[in-house]
Amino acid sequence: MAGKPRPTARKIALGQELRRLRNVRGLTIEEAAVGMGFSEAQLQRVETGFSALRRVNHLGALLDRYGVAETQLGEELMAIWRDAASEEWVSEFKDGMTPAQMPKFVGIEEIARTIRAYHPLLLWGMLQTEEYARALFAMQQPVLEAPSESVEKAVQLRLRRREFITREDDPVNLVAIIGESALRHIVGDIDVMQGQCRELMKLSELDNVTIQILPTEGKRYRFTADFSILDMGDELPPQVQADNAWGALAMSGKPRDVGVFTRRFERLTAAALSPEETADYVRNLSREIK
After folding, report:
1. Residues 6+ apart with CB under 8 A from 38
2. How far is it, in rounded angstroms, from Cα 88 to Cα 114?
3. What is the pLDDT of residues 189-204, one digit of tens each?
4. Beta-bridge partner residues of 210
5. Contact between 111 and 167 (Cβ < 8 Å)
6. Quick one: which of 190, 222, 271, 275 has the most CB atoms within 10 Å?
7. More confident residue, 259 or 158
8. Helices 148-166 and 102-111 sit at what angle, rounded to 10 degrees?
């Protein structure tokens, strides 16, 4: 039996219903937002499920404008808003989250049907062991001039995200292509890397996880930057996420952008080792690391 919908899923459902109600009243977004205390852009983000009205009185005023404030539907929508707000677990990590778009990305990542991820130089976050993640963040700490407690918070968030693919209730399907350099580069020490190899082999045995290694040798298609493609099922259009050199996180749901990165991922899939070859490669590499 499916569990209770997660906060982001509830925000999407709430946004879809608010958009339906606005259309029933024959209002544009501009007309619906007039005098409400929030912008047209904010309402648009709410309707797409990427954001939520921050104050309950804003939602109440909007429901009143749509003529459902004193109805059972209005009460149900208010309850959805309260439940989602009270259970938004990601809020406990927001202070230490970088870049600024990360909370939005994590919320969408949690309810994705399938994530296709490419990381040429480091392990994709969901695949990292606790030891690997801690060593990685500790290595970045002096560069970012971040407080020591931020390392532990970042590690705990990474472990929480890994639960998206390991949970029993509707786990996210993950297809990850990892550059060979990610495993050749020592993060932490030898024990950390050997443990990371063992974890990759363990995760690759899950029915919902596929891992492929892109070797450094040979004439193969390559791409230099990390990116992921999130399939949201019928609830939202696909989203593509990419990192840049400044540490920012960009997201787009534009069909052209999604199409370009989808074709890019397909080429990378064809260039990488098969899942079976990858398992042998990681097993052999684990023995080589000394």
Report:
1. 53, 58
2. 21
3. 899 999 999 999 999 9
4. 175
5. no
6. 271
7. 259
8. 20
Which residue is it, tokens 């960009």? 250
Say if strands 227-231 and 239-243 run parallel, antiparallel, or are unpaired: antiparallel
Half-sphere exposure of 97 (CA within 13 A, CB side): 17
Q: Torsion over CA of 14, 16, 19 and 25, rounded to 10 degrees?
A: -80
- Looking at this protein, which amino acid is placed at residue 83? D
Q: Which amino acid is at 33?
A: A
